[in-house]
């Protein structure tokens, strides 16, 4: 009697693994989808309090004739309706955040699961070769579909036309699907979840940069056509609420299908737990710097620090290049001037309001950097490397302190550097070199907000690592308040519920030493309490 072995099909067990991926990431996707889907209709409802439809033609001409405004917010198509204004004001922001959701979701469901050993355990059962990858991608695509449906329904619910709402919703969801495919490909190329996330996010950053360059270029020049090559721009090119071009949505649909197919092909050509890009061979002998926790943390973090530094310098220089013409633009558009006055802490001088608004955003981004640097220690703990380090004569406090040092110093330094670089063009144009000093002082005054966020992260890492997501909830709320709060005219008590709200916004406001010192003291107390908790808890426990 002969026996035959039955090998599972390539997608065997897809339903079960898709259910598992959705279950493991349900709160992650639910939070992202609900937050982004609420921003869009809320902006539409605030239209009449921001824009006078009678002045909309003037606003459109002003935006079309000013490269800096087009690069900052995108080209306006129709500001005479709430839907068209919403696409211009928060459309690109929603598309980018939806892409970030898709990238993080795919990587956590694929490469991160493989890195933690769960995928190998699943493959010991009757599971197809491509099933884990396809299940992780499908979970992200379902989230993108939910985002598209909710945006469409939300805009229709506030009275906007169905066709434009569908174009906006589908465009946003399909661009998210494109970057789900980008993340799937990145997960095959890189040998780590961290590398896959970095590669995919850098691709998104490059696409956004191409969009900004194309929108800022002359509409008659060849550079303007580069926008068609940026997935971030495809939703706007579909022209929601302005004679929709439905065929444009074939671009993200085709790109998403091709990228997912490429990821599946690449997955079959790599070994489990390895990437197609081979890891560099290490040195024969370790440098002396690795004998200390500080040297080890520097070795692990230096790539991230270099990338963040380059990105922040380029961003600051780009924003500084448009600063001198910004005040003239806003002088002719009182509605936009009012928005930037709100963003700028009530500053009457529009140049000051511009810098304060930018600093408020950069301060939150630097808070994200601080938390990310600290969370590298959490990743090392999950991977078991921390136990190996602590098995030597290294104390826990020294190990935690080495990461805490970089997470404290680098974001504050980059925030201050960005403030100086943003004002160089303004200072040279006006021959007033007090600008860098004043705006840098504003950056230093906002720095304790990021330290407070870092202190919360240290506290949670020391006492309740499983609740570390609370830090990202604070970040998300802060971004919402800074980017959309001024547009929606939220109550003051609501907008002040962020770590940065009590701090003075220099040079628009007077220095408030009590707020700065009190915020710093609370941040230090939280960090100290977190260090105590880290010394006491078992590694790997929550």
TrEMBL record:
It comes from Ornithinimicrobium pratense. The keyword Transmembrane helix applies. Keywords: Membrane, Transmembrane, Transmembrane helix. This is ABC transporter permease. The chain crosses the membrane at residues 27-47, 87-109, 130-156, 162-184, 196-214, 246-266, 305-326, 353-374, 403-424, 439-460, 467-493, 513-534.
């Amino acid at each position: 009697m002969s026996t035959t072995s039955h090998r599972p099909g390539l997608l065997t067990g897809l339903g079960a693994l898709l259910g598992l991926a959705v279950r493991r990431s349900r709160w992650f996707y639910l939070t992202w989808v609900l937050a982004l889907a609420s921003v869009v209709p809320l902006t539409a409802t605030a239209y009449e309090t921001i824009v006078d439809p009678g002045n909309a033609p003037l606003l459109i001409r002003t935006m079309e004739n000013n490269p800096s405004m087009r690069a900052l917010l995108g080209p306006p198509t129709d500001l005479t309706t709430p839907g068209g204004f919403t696409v211009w004001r928060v459309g690109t922001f929603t598309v980018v955040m939806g892409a970030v959701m898709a990238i993080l979701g795919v990587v956590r469901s694929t490469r991160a699961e493989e890195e933690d050993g769960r995928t190998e355990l699943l493959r010991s059962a009757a599971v197809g070769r491509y099933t884990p990858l396809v299940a992780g991608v499908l979970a992200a695509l379902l989230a993108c579909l939910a985002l598209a449906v909710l945006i469409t329904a939300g805009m229709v619910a506030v009275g906007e036309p169905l066709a434009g709402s569908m174009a906006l919703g589908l465009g946003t969801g399909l661009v998210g699907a494109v970057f789900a495919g980008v993340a799937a490909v990145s997960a095959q190329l890189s040998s780590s979840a961290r590398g896959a996330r970095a590669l995919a996010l850098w691709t998104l950053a490059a696409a956004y940069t191409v969009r900004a360059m194309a929108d800022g270029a002359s509409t008659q020049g060849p550079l303007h056509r580069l926008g068609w090559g940026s997935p971030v721009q495809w939703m706007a090119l579909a022209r929601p609420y302005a004679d929709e071009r439905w065929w444009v949505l074939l671009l993200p649909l085709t790109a998403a299908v091709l990228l997912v197919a490429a990821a599946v092909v690449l997955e079959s050509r790599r070994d489990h737990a390895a990437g197609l890009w081979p890891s560099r061979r290490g040195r024969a002998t370790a440098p002396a710097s690795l004998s200390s926790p500080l040297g080890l943390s520097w070795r692990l973090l230096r790539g991230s620090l270099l990338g963040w530094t380059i990105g922040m310098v380029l961003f600051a220089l780009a924003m500084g290049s448009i600063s001198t013409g910004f005040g003239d633009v806003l002088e002719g558009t009182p509605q936009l001037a009012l928005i930037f006055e709100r963003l700028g802490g009530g500053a009457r001088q529009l140049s000051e309001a511009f810098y304060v608004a930018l600093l408020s955003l950069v301060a939150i981004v630097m808070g994200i950097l601080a938390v990310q640097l600290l969370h590298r220690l959490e990743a090392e703990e999950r991977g078991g490397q921390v136990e190996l380090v602590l098995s030597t004569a290294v104390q826990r406090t020294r190990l935690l302190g080495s990461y805490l040092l970089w997470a404290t110093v680098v974001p504050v330094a980059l925030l201050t550097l960005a403030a100086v670089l943003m004002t160089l063009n303004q200072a040279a144009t006006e021959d007033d070199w007090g600008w860098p000093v004043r705006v840098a002082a504003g950056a230093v005054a906002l720095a304790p907000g990021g330290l407070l966020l870092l202190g919360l992260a240290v506290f949670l890492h020391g006492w309740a690592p499983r609740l570390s997501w609370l830090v990202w909830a604070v970040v998300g709320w802060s971004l919402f308040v800074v980017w959309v709060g001024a547009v929606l005219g939220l109550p003051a008590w609501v907008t002040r519920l962020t770590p940065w709200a009590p701090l003075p916004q220099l040079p628009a406001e007077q220095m408030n030493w009590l707020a700065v010192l009190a915020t710093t003291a609370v941040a230090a107390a939280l960090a100290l309490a977190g260090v105590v908790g880290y010394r006491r808890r078992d590694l790997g426990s929550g």
